[in-house]
Amino acid sequence: MQAELEGALATVLRVQHLRVTCAGRTDAGVHARGQVVHLDLPASAYDGDAHALGRRLAGVLPSDIGIRDVGVAPPGFDARFSPLWRRYAYRVSDHPFGPEPLRRHDVLGHRRRLDDDAMNEAAHRLLGERDFAAYCRRREGATTVRTLIELAWSRTDDGLLVARVVADAFCHSMVRSLVGACFAVGEGRRDAAWPGQVLAGRERLPDVSVAPARGLTLEEVRYPTVEELADRAAATRRKREVPS
Q1: CA–CA distance, 199 with 154 (Å, rounded to integer)
Q2: Which of 95, 116, 128, 148 counts the most CB atoms within 10 A of its CB?
């Protein structure tokens, strides 16, 4: 998405070498309907008509990328570092016949029945500020300490099993790895204590599977008040140590 958006912006604004910063860097194949981006522009490149800019962008972007709103960011805003939290949803159908065809792009078909009560018991043990190294793909020099605010499974009226996942930030493949661990519990292959034991080990294990990207969607990014934006970005940039 980032490359397509940068290309569209360069076309409509007639500016070269611009760079977009995204609130969430989603893995390939993951969806986003609550993505937030920002970019810095010379004053001469923007005429102040946000509606016109959004309309022009919609005309050149591919059909799988849509614009909800365009505006001038307040002072101190940073799409990546200012958020208080990000919310994802992972949608899975454990119906033996698979998901409805119209949902094939954003719902994972899982042919084995999943025990959502057991998955919720396991998920509850993962909450809080923790080192999620066991559920992340490490990047050199980057911390894997995150605060997992919510991880809860529920069933919708049409039978889908949906995980609501909220954290201050996520590292690479973290959500899909947590979902994969929950699947192991939901299928009965592991007990509810196992995901927490993996977490405590702080080492990525081969038996923690990464759930497919298709079922995951970035739903919402929440920012603080305008007055708190700069402080929040500064706090986020500080490297967090492993909690004791």
Answers
A1: 23
A2: 148
Q: Note whether 118 and 32 are same-domain residues.
A: no
Is residue 34 domain-shared with residue 106, that is, in the same domain? no
Which bin fits 21, alpha (ψ -120 to 50), beta or left (φ > 0)?
beta
CA 27, CA 177: separation in Å to the nearest integer? 12
Check which CATH number belongs to the domain holding 145 and give it. 3.30.70.660
Confirm whether 239 is domain-assigned. no
Helix H or strand E segment including 203: none
Predicted TM-score (pTM) of this structure: 0.93
The range of the structural domain enclosing residue 180 comes to 85-223
Task: Look at the chain and count its residues.
Answer: 244
For residues 198 and 118, state if they share a domain. yes
DSSP 171: -
Same structural domain, 52 and 89: no
| Residue 202, helix vs strand vs coil | coil
Number of domains in the chain: 2
Whether 27 sits among the annotated catalytic residues: the reply is yes
Spot the catalytic one: 27, 78, 117, 131.
Answer: 27
Digits of tens for pLDDT over the chain (244 positions)?
888 999 999 999 998 888 999 998 777 889 999 999 999 988 889 999 999 999 999 999 999 999 999 999 999 999 999 999 999 999 999 999 989 999 999 999 998 999 999 999 999 999 999 999 999 988 877 889 999 999 999 999 999 999 999 999 999 999 999 999 999 999 999 999 999 999 999 999 888 999 999 999 999 999 999 999 989 998 888 877 766 6
DSSP-derived secondary structure for 19-56: --EES--PPTT-EESS--EE----GGG--S-HHHHHHH
